[in-house]
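Morning. Coffee machine broken again, so started the prediction first thing and wrote up yesterday's gels while waiting. Chain of 185 residues, entered below exactly as on the submission form.
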Amino acid sequence: MVGFPIEDGFPAERLFNQGYSYTYDDVIFLPHYIDFPTNSVNLSTKLTKNIELSIPCVASPMDTVTESSMAVAMAALGGIGIVHYNNQHSEQAALIRSAKSRHMPFISDPMFKSPSDSIDSVDEFTSLPCVFVTESGNSKSKLLGVVGKSDWESLSDKEAPVSDYMFESLVTASSSYTFEQALLF
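Came back before lunch.
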């Protein structure tokens, strides 16, 4: 191993022209310090000329992978699910109609924290996937960020203020939007 150069990635040209491909088991992501905020990373990509994805994730068009529930889940995350072709055209259309008719659930009783608050235990999430961070810690003030349950669980310093690790790149719409307008936003 002496003198063996450690590579930090390699060009796309090499990846696509080498004659073989990689699977997840072939790739290791090494932890490393970064000198930029994580919320400045943009993973969006074009699937087609007219379809942009927020994240570069596509569910396989296999009958064991992508039915309407997977298509909805992928869309909710910013990716896309490609419906498989092992059905009649009418069945494919029904899967797509089913996926498009589902809506993300609303959080009817959200929890709010102010930027200086901390989250003391996982129990504070109750059955919620996230906690909202607002200027004054209530629903009447400006939304600043969101803390996901999994983000909190991975913290080493659980007493840190939520402003240290909240996700700030939020896409918001006016409260005057109807449900249908919000779906198109």
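The radius of gyration is 21 Å. Going to sketch it on the whiteboard this afternoon.
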